[in-house]
Write a structure and sequence with these properties.
single chain; alpha/beta; five-stranded parallel sheet; 9 strands; elongated
Length: 191
């Protein structure tokens, strides 16, 4: 009020986040059944499509809280990639560190109508193409954002390569706070 800046606004202004993570097109099919079928069947349902990926979701949540946030990741050079970048920009997420290559990653969620049973399949696509150059872009963003009293936080998940996440931590871990939200894919924990 009256030009005053609250303590939480001061903390937010002194903080910025670089997210290194997945950007997916989320596809959800809600089946009009309450029990999971034991064999292949067809049933009616509802279809939804939205922006997602653990990295993108966390970047959007932070931006909605007023935290300056940059996202380093990859989307496809396709219609889904264009949709995702536009959605992220509209949420005030800096996507300058995001590359376009191949096909956009997709997460497919199939659920029963009461949401009691779920089956998720994540198709990495462009997210699976992250490499050392993406780590280098993230390091460059951290260095660019370091200034005066500003604190840089690097936020990681394990939906993208844990090897690359470790490389990023080794390069910036002394310079800033690193936060890890473990969320590996069930069959991809060792990469």
């Amino acid at each position: 009020e009256g030009g005053r800046v609250s303590a939480s606004e001061q903390q937010t202004a002194a903080l910025c986040v670089v997210v290194f993570g997945a950007i997916n097109m989320d596809v959800k099919a809600t089946a009009e059944v309450s029990t999971w079928p034991e064999h292949a069947v067809s049933c009616k349902g509802r279809f939804e499509q939205s922006a997602g990926g653990k990295g993108a979701n966390e970047a959007v949540a932070l931006a909605r809280l007023g935290v300056p946030v940059s996202l380093v990741g990859r989307v496809g050079d396709d219609e889904s990639g264009s949709f995702l970048l536009s959605a992220l920009r509209s949420e005030r997420v800096d996507v300058g560190g995001t590359l376009r290559l191949g096909r956009t990653g997709t997460a497919v969620h199939i659920v029963t109508k009461d949401d009691s049973r779920k089956f998720n399949v994540t198709c990495l696509e462009a997210n699976g193409e992250l490499d050392r150059t993406d780590v280098q872009r993230a390091v460059a963003l951290v260095r660019q954002k370091e200034s005066g009293e500003r604190r840089v936080v690097v936020l990681l998940q394990l939906e993208v390569s844990p090897v690359l996440s470790r490389q990023l931590v080794k390069k910036v871990g002394e310079r800033c706070l690193v936060a890890l939200k473990p969320s590996p894919l069930a069959s991809d924990e060792s990469k």
